[in-house]
Design a protein that fits this description.
Blueprint lengths: L1 H18 L12 H24 L11 H5 L10 H19 L5 E5 L6 H4 L7 E5 L2 H11 L4
Parallel strand pairs: 1-2
Helix pairs in contact: 1-2
Organism: Rhodosorus marinus
Pfam families: LCM
InterPro entries: Ppm1/Ppm2/Tcmp, SAM-dependent_MTases_sf
């Protein structure tokens, strides 16, 4: 429930920024699917750059080596976002704590938004992680993890 609420807040924030004329990927007109894809991509890029900024701090709450790569050309304002950093740290710790017991064998990350948890967190070998997201988001994340960017 909490995860769904947080993802909804991130989507609303991205739409709000676009309506205020903030810079980001061009929003294309056309089918609802195209517009939705652009908003999801923009939201993912915002969060990626915020994770990259946190990762570059002297004493970061977490390190996400893929964040800057996944942000693509969007570089944002370079400011740290305590809200994003704390949220990321909380869910990272929650997931690592849950799998450390050895009883969790499947991790499902819905609407992952290129958060790269499937690649950067310590998960036991006998656990399986599933990322469920739009095709392009998953493809880009796999490509970045393999060093394809």
């Amino acid at each position: 429930m909490v995860l769904v609420v947080l993802l909804g807040i991130a989507a609303v924030a991205a739409v709000w920024r676009l309506r205020r004329g903030k810079t980001g990927p061009e929003v294309k007109t056309g089918s609802a699917a195209n517009i939705n894809e652009d908003l999801v991509a923009y939201s993912s890029q915002i969060i990626c750059i915020r994770r990259a900024v946190e990762s570059a701090q002297e004493n970061p709450l977490f390190i996400d080596p893929l964040a800057a790569i996944l942000a693509g050309d969007y570089k944002g304002d370079g400011k740290r976002s305590p809200r994003i950093s704390i949220r990321t740290k909380y869910f990272d710790d929650f997931m690592e704590s849950a799998v450390s017991t050895g009883t969790v064998k499947q991790i499902v990350l819905p609407a992952a938004g290129m958060d790269s948890r499937a690649y950067r967190l310590l998960v036991p070998e006998d656990a399986t992680t599933y990322e469920i997201d739009q095709k392009n988001r998953c493809r880009d994340e796999r490509k970045a993890h393999r060093g394809g960017y």
